[in-house]
Amino acid sequence: MQPVHPPLGEVYDLAVIGGGINGVGIAADAAGRGLRVLLCEQDDLAAHTSSASSKLIHGGLRYLEHYQFRLVREALGEREVLLGKAPHLVRPLRFILPHRAHLRPAWLIRAGLFLYDHLGPRQHLAASRYLRLAADSPLQADIRQAFEYADCWVDDARLVVANAQAARERGAHVHCRTRCIGARRSKGLWHLQLERRDGSRLSLRARALVNAAGPWAAQLLQLFKQPDGRALRLVQGSHIVLPRLYPGEHAYILQNEDGRIVFVLPFQEHFSLVGTTDREYQGDPAQVRISDVEIDYLLAVLNRHFRQPVSRAQIVHSFSGVRPLYDDHSASPSAVSRDYTLALAGNPGEAPLLSVFGGKLTTYRRLAEAALQLLAPSLPQMGPAWTANAALPGGEQWPGHATLVEQLRRRFVWLPASLAQRWTDSYGVRVWRLLQGIHDSQALGRHFGAGLYQREVDYLCDEEWAQQAEDILWRRSKLGLLLSASEQAALRDYLAQRQASRTRLSTVLD
């Protein structure tokens, strides 16, 4: 179904506030059911929590210790779904769990992995197994035993963008850098006021409203003069990026003395991603930064496991995010459930407000289905669920990663293998759109460094809502790890000139 949208100021079926994974997932699902949808995001897509994850699609092995069997079962099922929906963004990843007998006995780990193998469907991923580590293992000499299991890696920010594209291609209006500054109910509708970065404002009406503002969800409820703002518990998670710590494309899951675990993941070919932490957070979610305590914590866990010492001086990048979890009154941040909670508010005859608390990347699609099921009585024209078997943009008619790289190299013989590989990972089959009309390397335009060309920058601005250098360097790609300060400055200058040119053109046309 392709809905015909009213002009701004008219009535939408659904307005969604928040451009993280939950917001875009709900918007895409709703648009595909024939609803007229608008989504607004105060910053860039995935600007906060949804780009600050451990980049995993996983069942959550450690959640079994907290008896969260329903969440693990659902997440394990979604691994298989997302491998099919976004094969360019989601890929299998082997995890090695070193055995430390004083932390968890082997029988407990075996039992947990048995449950992990059998709680949910597992068609594409290998079963867990016991390992005896070789003498050349990068781990400490006293760590001789381990267990191996499979989960999945994901490009988190690009998964958000792909869902936003899916929403737009089904008729949704997606407005970035546009914040909601007010909303009130009147005559069975929500009346919303939105404000763009340039100060311009727009009004719209909607039959239903979704608060998917993540760490700002409670503040939004206060703005709307709605209850339940205290249900949110903010938990900070931080990561560090180091030069690659070991060869191979497997990950490690390290047990710590406090009962927590830390992932060490292969990252962007040359690096290792290490995280995450769990600590209570107070303050502006947009200002979250890694602390010295968190850095020391992560380094200490690494140095208890790896032979080669790791120091603070080796850190090349770090990032932090705030997880907006539903407050289940757990004693520690680590024990707070990562499950989602949906709160529906509105008396009979009133326009409903659905607020999203918690959730994780892995289960965003199921969360969206549950949200629309709750809203269905207020939106009787809504079509049936459809997302389980529909590919996201870039994953349509997927030929296989190696095959697509080979097709690119055969069609564009001048294209470097490393660039074909990165573009395949990032855009999937949409890479053909990126390269439409390109016949040689000169047509790619200015080279900013590390394989980032003007053609790709323009594509990201025109097709993927990118506006600022940080959008491109850290969310649409991770090339901020590779471009020098002067190269990044050149990109910022180009984007400023591009925007100024478009503003002048718009003024002339008006």
TrEMBL record:
Gene: glpD
Keyword Flavoprotein: yes
Alphabetical list of SUPFAM superfamilies matching this protein: FAD-linked reductases, C-terminal domain (SSF54373), FAD/NAD(P)-binding domain (SSF51905)
Identification of the protein by name: Glycerol-3-phosphate dehydrogenase
Sequence ranges assigned to domain Alpha-glycerophosphate oxidase C-terminal in this UniProt record: 387-490
Annotated PROSITE patterns: FAD_G3PDH_1, FAD_G3PDH_2
Superkingdom in the source lineage: Bacteria
A Pfam family hit: DAO
Record-annotated membrane-spanning stretches: none
